[in-house]
Design brief:
Elements lengths: L8 H11 L6 H9 L3 E2 L2 E5 L8 E5 L1 H4 L4 H10 L6 E7 L2 E10 L4 E6 L2 E2 L9 H21 L3 H37 L5 H27 L3 E2 L1 H19 L2 E5 L8 E2 H19 L6 E8 L3 E8 L10 H11 L4 E7 L3 E9 L17 H11 L4 H8 L3 H15 L4 H10 L4
Parallel strand pairs: 9-11
Antiparallel strand pairs: 1-7, 2-3, 2-6, 4-5, 5-6, 8-10, 11-12, 12-14, 13-14
Helix pairs in contact: 1-2, 1-5, 2-5, 6-7, 6-8, 6-9, 6-14, 8-9, 9-10, 11-13, 11-14, 12-13
Length: 425
């Protein structure tokens, strides 16, 4: 532990403000406390103590809105000791000069971008030493607040974390399918080298387009007609079925089936993709059948193969898919029959559990902000919200920015998860 620097009243006031800081304001308080000694364009705290809100940020919006967990993890991994480090690192997609310090007890990381020490009396000590001392106070404050956090905070944290995992899992499923398709094309004995290169290039180009548009594609539709949603599943899997040598049969749902909420359609496609890939990894699988149906209240999914019953219900992939189903209050049943194959049935409710809106008074939302949050939680885009509330799209963006600040979140995904944890839908 460092010794207290020899400083005057201003520094002691900063220490006092940090020691009393709520978690939602810890980054702003720390940046304010450091400003007399080190100017910075932005300040980012990366801590795994807060699972749903691992980043706490203050400063330039261009930086704090774009900094990623992957960048912070890489920077933290590159630090070989707990002392201050200064150098160039990629932050918010751009190489920047940074001052970074780890906090050993929790492995938390402080990142200050474009640090510029302010000249001060030598009696105040080195600016970097002052940064290190104040960072230790802030990091310990985070530890204490999380340890004493009420159940409501933990629920919000878990909700945001779960939503992040859900989105990541969906992307993993999508691109696992793409990579399996590329490998199948490269291994296909029916294609010569030139044809294989052409096919792989075309598949890769389409996958890159899908990656660039996935955000709009997965959030723009609040509901999808069931036939359209199933058609997208067939389109996703068609290249794989072409080269894998496994006959994948699609039993389409009724054309007049009830439209699917966006999250149900996305989850159903991800689950079927994951099951098809898992079944193809078994030996002696020649045929897989995927079927959707709808009973008015639930989407009914069935996937079965004709293998030897080698699919393990305890496999990591199956466990991940089952958690995805449970997140939507659904159910998954797996029947593995030695010598006859595997049969997986999934039931996904079309209506989310309803309940009263919880206590959101702590967010200090204006009436219009709460309306925007409710539309946001329902999966609507800014343009749809503007039309529903008869306001401009720029006004919606203004309210969304204010919501991010008041909810202490950095993305629509986290805002939606937090809203759902309080019954706002």
């Amino acid at each position: 532990m460092m010794t207290l620097p020899d400083v005057q009243g201003t520094f002691l006031q900063a220490v006092s403000a940090l020691a009393d800081a709520p978690l939602t304001q810890i980054a702003e308080r720390l940046r304010d406390a450091l400003s007399p000694y080190v100017w910075s364009s932005a300040l980012v705290i990366f801590t795994e103590d807060c699972t749903g809100r691992p980043q706490k940020k203050a400063g330039d919006d261009v930086i704090i809105s774009r900094v990623s967990i992957a960048e912070l993890e890489r920077l933290r991994a590159s630090l070989h000791n707990d002392g201050p480090w200064q150098g160039d690192a990629e932050v918010a997609g751009t190489p920047r000069r940074v001052l970074a310090i780890k906090f050993a007890p929790s492995n938390a990381l402080l990142v200050i971008t474009e640090p510029n020490p302010v000249e001060a009396d030598s009696a105040q000590g080195s600016p970097v030493a002052l940064v290190e001392y104040l960072w230790q106070i802030a990091a310990r404050r985070i530890q204490e607040k999380v340890a004493d956090a009420p159940p409501s905070y933990l629920m919000e944290s878990r909700a945001a974390s779960t939503e992040r995992v859900r989105v990541t899992a969906e992307l993993v499923d999508m691109h696992s399918t793409t990579l399996e398709t590329l490998l199948a094309a490269l291994r296909a004995s029916s294609l010569d080298d030139a044809s294989a290169r052409s096919t792989v290039s075309d598949l890769t180009a389409r996958a890159l387009v899908a990656l660039r548009t996935v955000s709009d594609r997965t959030t723009d539709l609040v509901e999808e007609p069931v036939a359209m949603a199933f058609g997208r599943l067939q389109e996703d899997l068609r290249p794989l079925t072409r080269f894998s040598g496994v006959n994948v049969q699609f039993i389409e749902p009724p054309l007049n089936g009830r439209a699917l909420p966006g999250e149900v359609a996305h989850a159903a496609r991800a689950v079927v993709r994951g099951l098809v890939l898992a079944m193809m990894e078994q030996p002696e699988v020649r045929r897989i059948r995927a079927q959707w149906d709808c009973d008015g209240d639930n989407l009914l999914v069935n996937v079965r193969d004709d293998g030897q019953g080698a699919l393990s219900a305890d496999a990591t992939t199956i466990g991940r898919l089952e958690r995805r189903v449970q997140a939507l209050s659904g159910n998954m049943q797996i029947d593995v029959m030695p010598g006859w194959g595997a049969d997986v049935s999934v039931t996904l409710p079309l209506d989310a559990p309803t309940g009263p809106i919880g206590d959101v008074t702590g967010w200090n939302l204006a009436a219009r902000e709460l309306e925007v949050l409710q539309h946001l939680a329902a999966g609507q885009r800014n343009r749809s919200i503007a039309l529903a509330l008869n306001i401009s799209e720029n006004t919606v963006k203004f309210h969304v920015r204010n919501l991010f600040k008041k909810l202490s979140v950095s993305s629509r995904t986290e805002a939606i998860a937090l809203a759902h944890s309080h019954g706002v839908r």
